[in-house]
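pipeline: protein-struct stage 2 | run 1193 | Alpha/beta fold hydrolase
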Amino acid sequence: MTLSHDVAGDGPTIVLLHSTVCDRRMWDPQLPALTSAGYRVVRCDLRGFGDSPMPDRPYNNADDVADLLDELGVEQAAFVGASGGGRVAIEFAARMPQRTTALALLCTAVADHEPSERLRAFGDQEDALLEAGDVAGATELNVTAWVGPFADDATRDLVRRMQRHAFEVQLAPQEEEHGSVKHDVDLAAVTAPVLLVSGEHDFADFHDIAVRLNKQFAGSRHVHLDWAGHLPSMERPEELNPMLVDFLRETVPAR
């Protein structure tokens, strides 16, 4: 299955990988900034999000992204990943470093992180609501947890719609359940330059992840935003976009 996707602009390829609270629509505020800066932008929906259905066979997100790039004739790309999308970008960069030109990781997750008590409590509460059939309650829980205090109502509403849709797709009866295929990820194999962004109003886990990765990735840079929650690219794109474009121009100059 090919991931649902869209492509815009010309120049070096930038792949945008969404948070697992969202889908590729989360990147609407970045699309004009990146294309006008001289980049070709690929946005995709991971399986079970947006317009990509649940998998019909065992799958791996990083392999799905590699297959999509093969289909588009893209040999190398830079990645901008948010949260769970960052985790996918890290795996791609570790397993396929020759295809990865840069990584911008926004409040990224990472495969080997042990969640804090607060993050585990969130997960337990979400599970309880979904098991009780309260999809609306689980959706509101996610909006409250992940959207920062300075986001506007339109941003909250979009996150609400994206999360609700993801729940509906993922909870729909399936003929057969297919899990993801896990690969060992060696962070030392990542060779691309890395920008790490964390937010003051996010779960502390994601600041801790950024601090740890900044020590592990050679030549990386960590920026902590005092205004941001978990989704800074949506909450204040006017502040996030210049930072993102500057990093890409330094590492993957547009032609």
